[in-house]
Each structure stands twice: as structure tokens, then as C-alpha cells.
Amino acid sequence: MYLTKEEEQILNGESGETLRQAIEILVALGDIYGADRLIPIKSSQIAGVSYKTMGDAGLEWISDLQGKVKVPSILNPAGMDLQDWKRLRISPEFAEKQKLIVQAYEKLGIRCECTCTPYNLEGFNVGYGDHLAWSESSAVSYANSVLGARTNREGGPSALSAALLGKTANYGFHLDENRMPEISFDVGYSLKGSDYGALGYVAGKLAGSKVPIFHLRCTPDADELKALGAAMAASGAVALYHVKGVTPEICRMDFEEPTEKITIEKSQLDEVYEGLRKACKEPELITIGCPHCSAAELEKAAELLRGKTVLKEFWIFTSRKLAKLHPEYIKTIEKSGAKVVCDTCMVVSPATNSYSCVMVNSGKALAYVPGMCGAEAVYGSMETCVEEAIGETTKKVAKKAGGSN
Question: Domain Phosphomevalonate dehydratase large subunit-like: where (predicted)?
Fold first, then answer.
């Protein structure tokens, strides 16, 4: 891989040990994947923030680093709400370690607004063709697919290295030839809301790491595209997808339809809703906001909960920025007894580990909760999640059972 004179000096340690380690990581990745050079990036988003996943070894590593990032950089969700960690009963010991991790990143000049939806924040606007170094799977998918930017699915260390250098290795999804569709999914029925998360959950398992193109009979909005990509990134390893006639790159791309074509039947989506529910007992915890809720999703949750009282633990996750921008939604949601939580999510917070069955409206959470939280997970729309939280589901089941006698 070609390095400029300045880059060679950094690799030789002339700019300090932290930058030497950073460029060493990027050069190693470039050599593995056949990159020709390093290229400038517009921003970085760094995963590996929760103490739940980093542990003491990660804390020690990040604490030893010196320097300042060269481009706008932001963190993925941490393991707790950084301002109100007690509300989900996080232990003081965990909280102290988590604060140290965030402080270590902040020392490097990284914005500590811990979110998986950085594209909703000022300073992280993304244009078509922009090169990025983002690492959270759903953010990578959204940037590549919905915004038409270019980023690989970076690991935490490589995203941080790119932030410190302002560059990343030129391989993978930074190159035109790797962005072509490789597998085609035909969906011959209408979809709405959480159906896109269910579709992504099914399609991700079928696509693996291939680039899919979807032929849909409806036009998804931004939140539905977010849900589709997040689920595929979790159930598979999809970092880029196209929707014919919808996503920006496929509308400009000269491409051939993939030879591998799969029709996804409605029964496969029904199985995501119903099959897993049959295998799981009654949910003890209901969560939405994986990825973090948008303003539109907060508004919808507020309307569904207006005048209602929740009977179960109900957590709604969003970025702190959006929570501050929309206090009216937060007030309505929390008046019901539900909790709006920032900086974290049900997947990376140890709080979820206290429950044995969790209801989610996210294909991403459905894929991750069992392995990362040790809980069973069931899937439903936001409306179904609210019904479960306020006890309407139990009433319907009881009424149905009574009517059958």
C-alpha cells in the first residue's frame, strides 16, 4: 500500500506512539484487503463504548492513548444513560467504569453523544459519495444505503484509528466495484412499519455479507429503511443494500440484475412475529429504539401512550439531542410510566440482563438480545409493544379464552 512521506513518518513513530499504533492498524487492514492507499474521511463513529463489552482491558487500552481526532467523531451507545444511570438500576461499580471509558474518549476530542444514529446530529451530516469510517452496524448500513456515503463496517479500534488520522484505507465499500448488487430479493406484498424489520431479519440470514437489491411493491420511508438495514446487519452481515427506485445509488448505477434471486414470502415474515412468540413466555420488559428513535418515532410513541398507563417496564431509547429537542414527546411518554433513556440501548446495557423475556419492535434487537443479554426476545410492531406494556394484550387473550368456553 502506498504511503505518503508524512504517513511513513507517522508509521516510523515520529508523531508519537498513539498515531503510530493508529496507522499501523490501518496499514495492516489495507494490506489484508488490498488497499492501494489511505483516503481522507469526513467523520468517524466509534463502537466499543459500553463497559459491558469493553471490560477492564478495553478501558486500560483507551486510557493509554494520547492525541486529538482530526475529523468530527462520535461514540456508539454506552452501557447506561450517562446522566441518569440509576433509573435502570445500574450498579455504582459499573457506572464508575463506564464514566472512565467515556472520559478517555472525550480526552481524545471525541463527542460523547452516545448514539447509533449519528446522521441525525448536527456536524454529522452525510452527503452522497462521502467517505466515512463508521463502525456501528446499523449506522454503517444507513450511511451506505440510504445516504449513498461510503464506509466499511469498521471495528472500534480501526474507526478510532481513522478518526485520529483523518483517513482510512481505500478498500471494500469505498470502491465502486464492491457496491454492485449481488443477490436479489423480490417482495410481492405491501409492507408497513415493523414489517421492514421483519423483512431485514429474514433477508439478512439469506444474504450473509452479500449486497442485496430489493424489489418492493411499496415505498419505505427513512425510518423503515433504517429498520430494514439494521436488521440485516444483525441477522447477517449486510453493510450495504439497495432498494430499486428508492435508494440513491441504485438510481444512478449502471448494473446488471444478480443471477441469485430469492422471493421472500409473507409467511416468512409472519413467522418472525408469531413463531418466536409461541416459543417465548410472556414478556417482562418492552423496549423500542434500536436503532435510536427518530423524532417521528418519538412522536408516534407519544401519541400511542397519550392518556395511557404502562403496567410493565417499558424503555424507549433515543439520542439525548433529540430528547432535548422534543420535550413535549418525552413528557407525554413518561407521564404514562414509560422511561425515555438516552446514551444506551437494550442490547449494550447490563440492565436488560435482569429479564428473561423482552419484547422488541426491532429486527436488530431481536437478533442480538438472546446472545448479548441472555434473554428470549419476541417481535411486534410499536403498536403491539404499547399494547403489551399497558396490558391490552393480556385483556385480549383473556377475552378470547373466555369467549371460547
Answer: 1-387
| Packing angle, helices 392-403 and 382-390, rounded to 10 | 80
Single out the residue of 180, 197, 195, 189 nearest to residue 260, CA to CA: 180
Percent of the chain with pLDDT over 90: 93
Q: How far apart are CA 27 and CA 33, in angstroms?
A: 10
The C-alpha atoms of residue 43 and residue 166 are separated, in whole angstroms, by 8
Residue 243 backbone dihedrals phi, psi, to 5 degrees: -120, 115
Report CA-CA distances (Å) from 37 to 27, 85, 152, 168. Answer: 9, 43, 15, 9
> Quick one: cell of 363?
429486527
Q: What is the CA radius of gyration of the chain?
A: 22
Q: Which of 166, 154, 127 is nearest to 19 (CA)?
A: 166
Greatest Cα pair distance in the chain: 82
**Angstrom distance (rounded) from CA 78 to CA 23:** 26
Which class for 21: exposed (0-12), middle (13-18), buried (19 or more C-beta within 10 A)?
Answer: middle
Domains in the chain, please, with CATH? 5-176 (3.30.499), 180-271 (no CATH), 280-395 (3.30.499.10)
Which is it for strands 261-263 and 242-243: parallel, antiparallel or unpaired?
unpaired
Confidence of residue 401 (pLDDT cuts 50, 70, 90): very low
Output the CA–CA distances (angstroms, integers) from residue 118 to 16, 200, 294, 322, 363, in the order listed.
30, 21, 11, 11, 20
Q: Measured in whole angstroms, how far is the alpha carbon of residue 219 from the centre of its chain? A: 22
pTM > 0.90: yes
DSSP summary character for residue 37: S
- Name residue 360's beta-bridge partners: 287, 379
Q: Does the structure show a pLDDT above 80 at 275?
A: no
Cross-sheet strand order for the sheet of 261-263? 242-243, 212-215, 183-186, 261-263
